[in-house]
Amino acid sequence: MDRTWDPDAPGVLELPSGRLVRGRALSRPLPGGPVPEFAVYLLGKPPPEVAWEARWLRWPDFWVPADRAAARAVLREAWERARDERVELACAGGHGRTGTALACLAVLDGVPADRAVAFVREHFDPRAVETPWQRRYVRGFPGGPAEGPGDGPAGGVP
Questions:
Q1: Has residue 2 been placed in a domain?
Q2: Average pLDDT per run of 10 along the chain, which is 158 residues long?
Q3: Domain-embedded: residue 154
Q4: 3-class secondary-structure state, position 83
Q5: Fewer Cβ close by (within 10 Å): the C or N end of the chain?
Q6: Is 16 in a helix, a strand, or coil?
């Protein structure tokens, strides 16, 4: 994992598997140090161009992703790539959408869905995941490292 983030750097969340993912606010300057190798931008409109590989998830402020299937695929890709790449998740403010996406990565990493928001609030930002529908989205997020893209536990929300 020598190509991933410094675990003590601002905004870096360590998942139970040891994967490191950085969450940040696009409204603030890019932090010093290494840049992401892969990023997921959670915005209502297309993000600005960046010099690294990035995906855009259309995700209106204070809401959930507009396309849940696309969100599952992109967040799973981010989780998989975080094993040995610098992965960043970001929205405008760095709390609601970013926290929700980080909680979904925690679910993929094996954190029970009903504990993922608390995990992210404890280890990333106490203000992460801002709305009741974002919390509900995380609780229904299909996850688990052994499952394929788009698959979820029995009874999971598609």
A1: no
A2: 83 97 96 96 95 96 94 97 98 97 98 97 97 96 58 32
A3: no
A4: coil
A5: C
A6: coil
